[in-house]
Amino acid sequence: MKLTLTKDMQASVELALKEANFSEKHKEEAEMIASACDESVPITVELIQYVSKQLNQSFHELLKGTAIYIEPKEIKPKNPEFEAYMAKLRAEQQERDYKRMVSSVITSEDQKFNLGIKPDELKEAKSHIATIFNILFSMIAVYTAVFKASKTIMDDLGLQVLMGLGGAIMIGTVEGILYAKYAYVATLEKKSKSKRIATL
Predict the structure, then answer these.
(1) Does a structural domain hold residue 98?
(2) What's the structural domain count of the chain?
(3) 142 near 168, Cβ under 8 Å?
(4) Do the domain assignments include residue 100?
């Protein structure tokens, strides 16, 4: 077992080395300990026991201030291929983050196909168009239903057409008013949200 070197241990080893009958078995380690410039060099328990006997010192006194020596971990050299691969991954991640950040900005390709309309505005325009088509579909459906129902009430084709048109116009007006109210409220919310962001 190896222990951390203390100044007292080093001094005792130096003193013991001066003895003529110093053991050859421990001499190499003792000389290394004696010539150590700092206390980072480990010392074996066997050498401490030998030195304490050689100098008639207390073994336990020599152990004061020491601890079990833990060899520092060897720093492995970095693999250049692995480092290059990690750098490539980091660059790709930064590129993805950048693209996500500027996704709302219109590119020249977007302007070609979207007539220069921003993605958010294009989405809103699509929503409006879809709603208009839904209203037209509702008007056609109501016209057809009223026209068919009026056939059972009257035989006059002109009146049947007028009743169908009246029903279609009525449902179109109601849905148009409801949608206009919804669009107005949504616009107000959007404006108030943009004002809050501007004041932050």
Answers:
(1) no
(2) 2
(3) yes
(4) no
Distance, in Å, from the CA atom of 171 to the CA atom of 138, rounded to the nearest integer, reads 7
Query: In degrees to the nearest 10, what's the CA dihedral of 176, 181, 182, 188?
Result: 140
Please report whether residue 83 resides in a domain: no
Does the model's pTM come out above 0.70? Answer: no
- 135: which 2 tokens? 């209203």
- pLDDT tier at 137 (50, 70, 90 boundaries)? very high
Instruction: State the Cα angle at 153 between 148 and 159, rounded to 5°.
Output: 75
Give the SS3 label for residue 11: helix
pLDDT at 120: 64
Segment 41-68 shows an average pLDDT of 80
